[in-house]
Design goal:
heterodimer; A: about 475 residues; about 0% strand; globular; B: mainly alpha; 1 helix; about 80% helix; rod-shaped
Amino acid sequence: MFEVSSTFYVVLVIYFAVIVGIGIWAGRKNKDSEDFLVAGRSIGPVVGGAAFAATQMSAGTFVGTLGVHYLTGGSFLWIWAGLWLGWLVSATLVGPKFINFKGLTVPDYVGTRFNSKAARGISAVLILVAYTVLLTAQYQAGGNIFQTFLGIPFIWGALITVGITLLYTMKGGMRATAYSDFVQAVIMAGCFFAVLPMLFQQAGGSDFVGKFLTELNPNITGWHFGAKDLLGFGASFGFSMAAAPYELARMYTLRDKKTVKLAIGFSFIFQAVVAVSVAAAGMAVRTMFPYMSTPDIASTIMAINIVPPVIGSLIIIAILSAIMSTVSGIMMVCASAFSHDFYTTMINPKATDEQRMRMNRIAILVFGTLPILLALKKFDIVQFIVTLQASLSASFFFATVVLGLNWKRGTAAGAIVSMIAGFFTALFWYLAGKPFGLSEVIPGVLVSVLSFVIVSLFTKPVPKENLKHFFNDVA
Amino acid sequence: MFNLGQSFTLFVLYTIVWIVGYFIWASRSEQE
């Protein structure tokens, strides 16, 4: 267990106070339910970029990915290149059109673009199921951190993680999520980058680390993963990121088209600092402890055994930040899918703004606490969905979002068939044991694109009234 | 900064070129 100094508790309390304070401040700034869901469309490029990066990076980045670098060295860094290609698709073909539309949720786009309540409902259901379950994994990670480092029982750790995140998200909505993400992204990137000089000094310097690892296994400093592996991983991450609903929802919060493009650029900076720092840290830890039982404990060993307690505390805060920023972003996406796309659009279209605000907060509370029960029950299906959610949501949304925004002929039937066909192709590909060693996301996206095009060509086009929100040349 | 092998160094260089290139594209595309 971590040797807890009082400094750690002081730092932890300050951290919690700052993000809850952001929640209270954001709550005061929000004037109506639209403000609550899209932060008044007022977020600038730096805060927006940090929010993109913070939402994308989770506990997995600092625990699982650091472990992969510990085991395999630097070549795994190249998966970020694929991921950034996905972001480039987002910056060129998706983000600017989302901004023009000025919607509130991702299903809002689906319903309006395709003039279809069924398509809107199907996309909202997938978001609710996949993301509610995904939250479970984040809660488990939060509980594990408190248990491993502080000896606090798992359930209390999970409850602290959820409770604080619920508090600021329910109070300040998307504005609180965006600004707290900024603070959390700075903590993540800053802490892991700042710890490197100390880590390498203790490991004997970067020259020694390089020589030691090359002697241990030349692939660690060379290419453990070859071009085929990296292309597979890269495509899988890239497709997922180009149409990830929790990132798409952030587009609505930004000021204008220029802000979207710059924000994605700033998110690259945050991601790059974290990527390089995590890789370097993993390789330094390998030099000091070359034969750990499991690479997943490399970040824990770093915080507990290698750096001084104060720095170790900051590393724990950085991992907690990664969890909480992802949780808060997902809570908002789930809650808005229910409150806006079911309650306001289908159940009670005449709801007052006060009723909408109340429903937003109730939905955050319900969809934020439900995963605690799933985390305690430890259903097998939870782990299954967590593993597959990025592939399934990419196979589900890629054609509907990327083609839907850029090809006028796309129809509601095309979108519905493509979402369902893409989803089940990815699922069955995975269950079939990934034939040809191909990640399930590639056939999933391919089938969703093909079915979108073929079915759209044989069905009635969407009325111009709906298309004009997305295409400048439609009057 | 670090001497951690070819895959690591090349990625750091790639990242710098990618980010600089991206910002040049982002600002030019908005001027048009």
